[in-house]
Amino acid sequence: DFLTQTSEMLRKICLRNLVRKYCRGLTAERKVQLQQKVVTSAVFSGKKEGYLESLSQPFLDTRLKENDLNPKVLQLIRGENIKYVTPVIKYDRNGFKARERLLVLTQSSAYVVEMAKIKQKIEYSTLKGISTSNLSDGIVVIHVPEDKQQKGDVILQCEHIFETVTKLCILANKQSLVKVVKGSLRFRVGSGKEGTMVFTAGPEPQVFKDKTGQLTVV
């Protein structure tokens, strides 16, 4: 009836005003947090273990500051606006030896850095995909094109996997290329060769090369 329709209209107007008041009261920092968390939800919600626990954890602007980078590295990437830096473990494509590295994300490229050396540069425009598993591990694979400038796909382990992948796909504008896989995934080693990574659940987290030569992530 008329009173019911009026009540519904007033309810919608009140709700709209409350939302407008909330949005106007947001700080710039809080707004960025919410925008990033929306992307994280679209990529990981209902797909990867640990997502719900990550909701209450704010993303940091960066895990390391620009001043923490070696001056030689800063010189090599001069002119690019550094957006995010985080320590990572990189696994060799052959042999899967674990190596401490830094992942540096600029406005246009991702860099895998060893001390004063840039080990690999991936321009976002050439990025082929980003893969993670559905389990609680911190593995992310950055898929690159098959060309002479690239050594193969990049296998990284990140402590803050949701934060790192969100930053990467937002900067690269490649949200649709993020895949959360179950069981296993293929990655390019280089020279037309491929490797296999297997994900499994276990009592203790570990990453190792199994008897078949596959990289096993527990």
From TrEMBL:
GO CC annotations on file: myosin complex
Taxonomic source organism: Sterrhoptilus dennistouni
Domain TH1, first and last residues per copy: 48-218
Coiled coil: none
Protein name: MYO1H protein
MF annotations from Gene Ontology: cytoskeletal motor activity
